[in-house]
Amino acid sequence: MNILAIDTSTDWCGIALVQNGECRYKIEEQIPRKHAEKLPRFYELLKDQTNLDEINLNALAVSIGPGSFTGLRVGLGFTKGLAFAKELPIIPVPTLQIIAANSGLIIDKFTVMMYSHRDIIYYQRFTFSNNQYKPINEEKVGSWNSIEHPESAVHCGCEKLVVNQTYPSVHPSAEMAGLLAEKNFNEWVLENPYTLEPNYISPFELGPIK
Q1: Can you tell me the distance from the alpha carbon of 100 to that of 170, in angstroms, rounded to the nearest whole number?
Q2: What is the pLDDT of residues 61-77, one digit of tens each?
Q3: Segment 112-123, tens digit of pLDDT
């Protein structure tokens, strides 16, 4: 299976070609507020390096959120344009699940936290079983001091909020988006994805981690 994956959900911007469970080529860079400028260049470079036009793509994968409002719109807009031009389906991949899988934590339960703005974060609980990272609950949003902080967790972009904790920092990646998209292809693929919108999560969905 051949999947072209895109992630622009945070300050990081990336694109990757995943083929049969392996990443053949990827480009990623931390470029705050430059996704719209850099992503088309990344795509052209990947296309040149992989002879992409000669590869029979099965689908396009994109990190669907939560995350940066502008970044998500840039990534999904670019992906939709490619999907329309190449007549391909889109596989929306949850951003927090990408981070969970990127963490490499081999433990029963842990939390993924992603910075939004001020002291607001997105968060979700995951479990690792049967060699897969699965969500335990829905994505939520809340203030750093209003939620519980379990012993086992990873964060993305929360450096200014992490004081007494020693959580590792993990960012999402296009490579992992592509690998998850391939693994969950039948469950997640959208054959008619043109009305697909990013998962921003309402800022009013506040609550503790359970």
Answers
A1: 8
A2: 999 999 999 999 999 99
A3: 999 999 999 999
Structure tokens at 11: 């300050």
Query: Cα 95–68–197 angle (5° rounding)?
Result: 70
Domain ranges of the chain: 2-94+172-188, 96-156
Transcribe 47-75 into DSSP letters: HHHHTGGGS---EEEEEEESS-HHHHHHH
Tell me: domain 2-94+172-188, CATH 3.30.559.10, correct? no
Residue 156 half-sphere exposure, CB side, CA atoms within 13 Å?
A: 28
Give 3-state DSSP helix, strand, coil % of the chain, rounded to 5: 30, 30, 40
- The rounded distance, in Å, linking the Cα atoms of 187 and 190 is 9
The rounded distance, in Å, linking the Cα atoms of 33 and 204 is 25
pTM of the model: 0.94
